Amino acid sequence: MKLVDINFEEFKEQKALLQKLKSMGLPTPKTEHYRYFGIKPILDKEYALTMPKTQKPEEANHIEIEDGSVVKAPKSLYIEMQKNIKIDDSHYDQIYYLNHLLSERVIHIECEEDMDLKIVHKHTLSKALVPYRIKLTIAAGKRVNFYEEHLVLAQDALYLYGYDIDLQENASLKLVQNRISNLDEFALIAPHSVQCNKKSNFALFTFDFGSAKTLHNYHIVLQEEATTDANHVIFGSSSGRMGNTFHIENRGKESKTTQLSRNILKDKARGIFDGLLIVKNPAKYSSIYQDSKTILLNDGAFMVSKPQMEIYTEYISEATHGSATGHIDEEALFYLRQRGIEESLAKEMMVVSFLNEIFEKLGDEEIKEEFIKLYEERQ
């Protein structure tokens, strides 16, 4: 089955979703946030639609989701398979609605205490289309650190997954998404929705490594005095296409958005950063900051960087954005070589230094060491 051949009439019970998707249509190469991703070959492939199973998870100290099914979970954590959840009807991505349409039930994780939580996604089914979603609710005033990693074993497959996150008043979530895939014909499209209520805080750190085809589309809404700090690292190789697209809306007064994107690309890899920051009229005295920088390690690599802002109020505290793409600074490299440092080590030092601002904000030496190891393996 091809995605373009799905019979949407089978989903008549989900009228609102069906109507929304019909009005938008499936993405095409002309769809702005898919323009450089190469969506048509992915949609045109034949897949076996494989729905996740509902089963009793094995007890563990982390959550494990294998092909959309929860197979392990902490006993103390509230998890249920929930039907007909409230969707984000202002999301800009067609796949968001398709993903919900295909996902009859979503994995609902409710955090009512301060906690650190790890979630592992295993993608094992080749030639399959696997849709699933996760609803994550953080109770008012609670602080949660959520660490996510992906294990990819599937070829010629398309996985659709994403989060619907509800940060209640004065809640805080630090979400670290560490995604590694070296299977060239694996594709993952992940539309996410994040609702940040009054005085809540959302810190996002995404790390995409490898040669697969992955695109994450985030819609983040900030209410009064809410903040989001979004940070992204891409290290693409071979013919991989990796990207992050965003619509971040400051809807409440004194809300704050900060976004950093750092990308390193080699071979024929393509990176995508398409970020739109929006300040609505009621969001007076808000601030937005956006910065995207890319290093191309050779001439075949390609970066699409589109930092954008739309401001609909006169009363704004700060609005800054910028983008720069280039090769390794030859003068700086020469300086290090003159001091007896081997060229490969000198380049590694420069690349790690380029990412240090994000690594320091994250405060996780393990991810930094993992990046250095991956970089060394690909030289």
Quick summary:
This protein is of the alpha/beta class.
How would you portray this structure in words?
This protein is an alpha/beta fold and about 375 residues long. It has two domains: about 5-325, no CATH class; about 330-379, no CATH class. The protein contains six helices and 23 strands. The strands form two sheets. Strands 1, 5, 6, 8, 9, 11, 12, 14, 16, 18, 20 and 22 form a twelve-stranded mixed sheet that branches. The chain has an eleven-stranded mixed sheet with strand order 2-4-3-7-10-13-15-17-19-21-23, with helices on one face. Strand 3 (about 65) and strand 4 form a beta hairpin. The longest helix is centred in the C-terminal third of the chain and has 20 residues, at about 345-360. The mean pLDDT is about 90.
Task: Give the SSE layout.
Layout (H helix, E strand, L loop, with lengths): L14 H10 L14 H6 L3 E2 L8 E2 L3 E4 L2 E5 L4 E6 L10 H9 L2 E7 L3 E9 L4 E4 L2 E5 L4 E10 L4 E4 L2 E5 L4 E10 L4 E11 L4 E10 L2 E10 L4 E10 L4 E10 L5 E10 L4 E10 L6 E11 L5 E10 L4 E11 L3 H9 L4 H20 L2 H13 L2
Parallel strand pairs: 1-8, 2-4, 3-7, 6-9, 7-10, 8-11, 9-12, 10-13, 11-14, 12-14, 13-15, 14-16, 15-17, 16-18, 17-19, 18-20, 19-21, 20-22, 21-23
Antiparallel strand pairs: 3-4, 5-6
